[in-house]
Amino acid sequence: MKTIAAAPFALGSLTDVEAYAQSLPASERMPALFLGHGSPMNAIEENEFVKKFREVEKSIATPKAILCISAHWFTQGTKVTAMEMPQTIHDFGGFPRELYDVQYPAPGHPELAAQTGKLLAPTTVELDQKWGLDHGAWSVIKHLYPNADIPVVQLSVDRTQPPEYHYQLGRKLDSLRDRGILIIGSGNIVHNLRTLDGRNLDKVNHGFDWAFEAQAFVNQYIVSGNHQPLLEYQRQGRAIQMSVPTPEHYLPLLYILGMRHQQQDVSLFNDKLVGGSISMTSVKIV
């Protein structure tokens, strides 16, 4: 696979990133979104969560393209989809045939993939031709843009790197928002399938005590702008440990939080628990 590695600069320094971004066509600044995607069934069900996704789309300008960081592309190293037409990946099992029949034929954007690789220097970014759009991406994006007419590129989450690394990559990607790119992180802040209460999946805002505690803890620091405790989530006690037993659904949030500047507004929506141990909490930064 082709890789991109640009001249190195200190992690967290935006000087070279901003200089490169200035060479890209300017556009209206886009928000950054973290979307709690929950069950794959949200792709085909009509509920309050997908209705809110559509409401959010109505409040923002039409993007030139979408860059999505999905929990379901958890890789060794950093990769970005660079094909002209990404496939729709049904990366789940045991669901109705109707869900497997869903196709989301959004075009890719090889140029954006290459630009992303340059912005993330000194990280080596592999231009991937095999992956496509997994359900962490298409199950939510299809509610925002049902016509599949906005190009979509996916960025993988490097499982070998610590939280601070992902947060800093988000900082570097932020400049794309001034170029008409909508950046979406897709995961779930509270995500523990081992404790899922399958008998009460239809109950909205049904959660275990530790899940509500973790939800309140994370929300507090998202809104305050003090992100350090969220970067150090592994030190934050039992409620967070139960809510984030593995990091893949949590780390996409850190990319989006890395894009927040002090003067920017942040809001929460879909801030409810389902199945006892999954939060649909979503974040909008403008």
TrEMBL record:
SUPFAM superfamilies: LigB-like. The keyword Metal-binding applies. Residues 33-262 form the Extradiol ring-cleavage dioxygenase class III enzyme subunit B domain. It holds the Pfam family LigB. GO terms for molecular function: dioxygenase activity. Keywords: Dioxygenase, Metal-binding, Oxidoreductase, Zinc. CDD domains: 45_DOPA_Dioxygenase (cd07363). The keyword Signal does not apply. Signal peptide: none annotated. Its cofactor is Zn(2+). InterPro entries: Extradiol_dOase_DODA (IPR014436), Xdiol_dOase_suB (IPR004183). Belongs to the DODA-type extradiol aromatic ring-opening dioxygenase family. PANTHER family: 4,5-DOPA DIOXYGENASE EXTRADIOL-LIKE PROTEIN (PTHR30096:SF0). This is 4,5-DOPA dioxygenase extradiol.
